[in-house]
Structures
1.
Amino acid sequence: MTHPSIFRSLRILPILLGLTFLGACTPDEIITPGLEEPRDLTATYTWQLDRWDNAEPIGSPRVELQWSIPNEWRGDPFRVYGRRGAGGPFNLIATVTACSSGLCTYLDTNVRSGETYHYYVSAVDERGGREAESSRVQANVPVFTVPAVPTDLNVTGLDGMAFLQWRQSAAQRFRVLLQVGQEYFDLGETDSQSFLDDRAENGREQRYLVAAIDTLGHFSRLSAVVIGVPRPDYHAEILYPMDVNAAESGFRFVASPESQDPVLAGDAPSAQWRLETINGAVTIRPLGATRVTQGTFTTALSCGPGAESDCIDVKQAPTASAFTDAPVQAQTASTYVFRVTGPESRTHYAKVRVLGTTRDTLGRTVLVFDWAYQLRADDVRLNVGVAK
């Protein structure tokens, strides 16, 4: 007969064996999960402007690396490896310890034009001495041609604003600067060949310069300085499309802009027309009984004393068949004639000449235009009256 103590020993043996195997592992090996590699690594070439030196842009080429952190990231560092050219070993070039919003970034400033650079990033398990590598990416640092300098700058002083225009058709965008003494201050960027400085002060001389920027961020030299002096008058007007700024998208022709603001909300009952964006184009939409023409190319709102011999303007309203109640696209250098109902419920005529579509300092699309309003009811002449 087998003694009962032997059965107890047999039951305890598997437990002891299990404890023996567990004791052969360290605590870290039990709780450490598998190491995940960094995800979605990208390498993007940029050119960084550092400062201006006598109108010359001073800066350097850079490659920005960006990647997503692993799902099970525990705050361990990442190691960045790189090499120049297709051959040779990768070298450790940086250790990144801080990331935010699920993304990590490293800027490699030790690059040269005309070279190709290869990179990968490793997640690091410092306790286990392990690394998990990302996919490999490359960035080409080009030998570039400096963009052409913007030319033919001119500035129109408005009421508390300055409207700049220039020529340079090849650049993707432009940086507008204000010169104060020997210092330059960035006002903003635009993708059109014009800019509205809506922070200018009346009566104060403003000195503007413009630089062209290509698709890779390379800057041209600064343009020549153009000087403008904003003034409190009514030689121009600005209006926004309703989808951009509804509160300043509507317009009504008035006899005295000093006593009654012609700009109002696009859905205001007294608005005679407003701006809208239709299929990407800034468009005039007549409201109520208002009618408008398709627009005519002109060189000025009105050709008065001192005008050039080849000056072109609209001197009177056309016949009724030329007017429409349909939306009309606003074209630069075109004059549009309006037929509206005046305050005495009689017909009045007005004209608007578009100076251009640009962007303000907040990047919002804005239309700049001149206008004139015939005060006499039923008078088709448009070369007299209150002019803007």
2.
Amino acid sequence: MGEGMAKFVLKEIKTMEDWEEYIDVVNTTWITGTLRLAETLVGETLPEYSLIHAMASLHQKRHTIHSCYEDITEIPKKKIYWPKEMWSKYVKKIEDLQYDEVNSIKAVQLVNEMVTNVLSHVEGSLDFTSKIQDPGVFRIYARLQLMSIGELALCYNNIQVFRTDLKIRAEVKKKICNQTITMACVRCFLRYFLSHEVHGEEQ
């Protein structure tokens, strides 16, 4: 994992293939490692690799979208993990999407394209969670999954991705942590995200 991450310290994420490789190095490896630990400690059975990858992609790609404001405003400037192949269709510099009202429509279109890409992993990630047998391990991944999906709902069609540190409302986070026990709970929260406002505190 460390060797793979070191590769991306200097390497720009230009293509969708670069992005997928980065996700695989960072999060698929991490989730596989935590599952193997759970296998040793509580006898958890590892789901197939494709489902692990779907869960990892959902979580890490969501993080990439959500952290854009921090990445483009922090000094010294941080690395941008959005694939250039995608954002360069809209602007020459990704920073141009931040406060340029002329580009506001393009900014929203880009965010929506990014979120739509991530949503392709939801079905696989739900299959992943449904296969976790140990209740404690299930809660860890189900909460992680729901936080990711909730943040995607928050970011979709939202220009503020580029302008502030968006957060899910604290009471929503608390409900996810306290009430996510079974797959039925997961489905209830998914319906909630489809029908309720999840926008929350901004910094």
3.
Amino acid sequence: KYENQFVGYGQIVINDSLPLIVNFGILEKYRRKGLANALLNHLLNLLYEAGYKKVKIKVDIDNTGAYILYKKKGFIEDDVYFTWHYFKKG
């Protein structure tokens, strides 16, 4: 929620013990406010707390904003998905 409005969505599907974030997005009117980053952090934290150390997310290569966000968050690109691994620091 942002300013008391639902402005984004994200769904996690567990497939073969590997989480996949699908249907992830922020309504166009609310983009460029850091909300996608906040929502992605929330989903990653939920997965981490559930014991997952790896997650995949699918993105259309033409979705430049999402592509940049996922790279900044540490996702690594493969053929179809971006994969994120949690590595504890220190």
